[in-house]
């Protein structure tokens, strides 16, 4: 335990003793600032403290923080909600010397802040509230460990999925005898099934958000590079993208676009609404919408209710290893010199609360970050977890030493989008993506 940290803990213990001896002092409230993404939903969940009644990322995280404040009247966690992913704002806050105490950070973005000394190592603080990194899943622990220290509390692992309208799959003749969807096992099978789907239903096989989009393109590319055993970030300071493996992925999604096997000109919100309205067979979206889509499927009169909803990992289209891109959400703590012992203790309570409620968060569709929850009967009993279980071993992140992963995501998405929509030749897009990323990494 460092001397500075020990002084905090001792001071916090002294404060606690004074509080117990003085009723007036005990009513003092310790304020901590919490900054998060996951959207705003105050109209539905702004005052809700019954987490079991919450649905979706926004509803569950809003209700969890409400309950934390209700359960800890001596602490006030003041929440700021930012537009996803919020890193431009967070970077500006650090530059101004006024970052939030606790902030949602993707595992893929932790290195950007940790490498500059902006995040507090949490090993000692987590130990004081009884959280051991041994309790994290392998994915969770790997995602928050930097230079042999823990720099955030992992709360989930997430990935992209095939969200499937079973009614349209039945209409297209793409259901097995047991009612499960027939998924492709190669690029040729995918294109053939997409053509069959289009002919039988008059609708596109895929519902994709391709307007003003970078993340979807990039995550698709990573998944199918992993499946081809492409070690494109063998050197975390330099990418190798102008390869036959990457060209195959670009050409696959260009064929899907050119043959009208996908929706077009839809942003993220429009794609969700289109899928819920039954305008396509498969939406490419993440673990975070499983809870919402399952709720829609349970509601009479909806497109998913009429035929059914299923969700699966991306199919294995290439002959390499079974893998798909994965990331995770975390709570990180800013490294502040002026933080009081009371605030540090309050932060520890907040992290412990979220660790204790990881099952509630897993109802979103994300995989738990704690082994005990992942192995629990309660988690396994949630809808679709049997088909999602393989993600625990399939999920593959970029190497943790790769910095500026969100900026890289934007570059790849821009170049892949240009190639898919015909604005740029595939070879030119691959060349430009590689050179732009390497220029970015060379100037860190």
Question: What's this model, at a glance?
Answer:
It comes from Rhizobium herbae. This protein is α/β, with parallel strands linked by helices.
List keywords for this structure.
single chain, alpha/beta, D-Maltodextrin-Binding Protein, domain 2, 6-stranded mixed sheet, 5-stranded mixed sheet, 13 strands, Multiple sugar transport system substrate-binding protein, transport, Bact_solute-bd_prot1, SBP
What does this structure look like?
- This protein is of the alpha/beta class and 444 residues long.
- The chain folds into two domains: 189 residues, D-Maltodextrin-Binding Protein, domain 2, CATH 3.40.190.10; 215 residues, D-Maltodextrin-Binding Protein, domain 2 (3-Layer(aba) Sandwich).
- Helix content is 47%, strand content 13%.
- It contains 23 helices and 13 strands.
- The strands form three sheets. Strands 7, 8, 9, 10, 11 and 13 form a six-stranded mixed sheet that branches. A five-stranded mixed sheet has the order 2-1-3-12-6, sandwiched between helices.
- α1 crosses α16, α11 crosses α12 and α22 runs antiparallel to α23.
- The longest helix has 19 residues.
- It is globular, with a radius of gyration of 23 Å.
- The N terminus is likely disordered.
- It holds the Pfam family SBP_bac_1.
- Keywords: Periplasm, Signal, Sugar transport, Transport.
- Its main location: periplasm.
- InterPro entries: Bact_solute-bd_prot1, SBP.
- It is found in: Periplasm.
């Amino acid at each position: 335990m460092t001397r500075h940290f020990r002084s905090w803990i001792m001071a916090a213990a002294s404060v606690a003793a004074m509080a117990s001896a003085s009723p007036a002092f005990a009513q003092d409230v310790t304020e901590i600032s919490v900054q998060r993404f996951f959207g705003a939903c105050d109209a539905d969940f702004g005052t809700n403290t019954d987490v079991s009644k919450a649905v979706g990322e926004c509803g569950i995280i809003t209700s969890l923080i409400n309950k934390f404040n209700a359960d800890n009247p001596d602490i006030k966690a003041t929440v700021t909600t930012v537009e996803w992913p919020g890193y431009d704002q967070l970077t500006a806050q650090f530059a101004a010397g006024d970052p939030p105490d606790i902030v949602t950070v993707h595992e893929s973005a932790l290195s950007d802040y940790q490498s500059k000394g902006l995040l507090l190592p949490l090993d000692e603080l987590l130990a004081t509230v009884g959280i051991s990194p041994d309790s994290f899943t392998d994915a969770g622990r790997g995602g928050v460990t930097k230079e042999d220290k823990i720099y955030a509390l992992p709360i989930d692992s997430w990935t992209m999925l095939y969200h499937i309208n079973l009614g349209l799959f039945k209409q297209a003749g793409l259901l097995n005898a047991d009612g499960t969807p027939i998924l492709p096992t190669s690029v040729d099978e995918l294109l053939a099934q997409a053509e069959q789907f289009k002919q039988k239903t008059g609708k596109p096989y895929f519902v994709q958000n391709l307007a003003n989009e970078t993340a979807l393109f990039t995550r698709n590319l990573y998944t199918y590079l992993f499946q081809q055993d492409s070690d494109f970030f063998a050197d975390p300071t330099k990418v190798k993208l102008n390869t036959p493996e990457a060209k195959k992925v670009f050409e696959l999604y260009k064929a899907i676009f050119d043959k009208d096997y996908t929706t077009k000109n839809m942003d993220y919100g429009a794609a969700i609404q289109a899928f819920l309205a039954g305008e396509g067979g498969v939406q490419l979206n993440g673990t975070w919408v499983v809870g919402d889509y399952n709720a829609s499927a349970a509601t009479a009169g909806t497109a998913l209710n009429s035929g059914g909803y299923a969700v699966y990992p991306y199919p294995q289209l290439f002959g390499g290893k079974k893998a798909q891109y994965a990331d995770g959400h975390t709570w990180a703590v800013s490294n502040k010199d002026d933080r009081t012992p009371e605030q540090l203790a309050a932060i520890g309570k907040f992290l412990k609360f979220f660790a204790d409620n990881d099952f509630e968060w897993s109802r979103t569709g994300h995989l738990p970050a704690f082994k005990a929850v992942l192995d629990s009967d309660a988690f396994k009993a949630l809808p679709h977890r049997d088909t999602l279980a393989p993600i625990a071993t399939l999920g593959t992140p970029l190497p943790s030493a790769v910095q500026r992963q969100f900026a890289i995501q934007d570059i790849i998405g821009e170049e892949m989008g240009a190639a898919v929509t015909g604005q740029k030749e595939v070879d030119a897009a691959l060349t430009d993506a590689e050179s732009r990323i390497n220029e970015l990494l060379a100037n860190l």
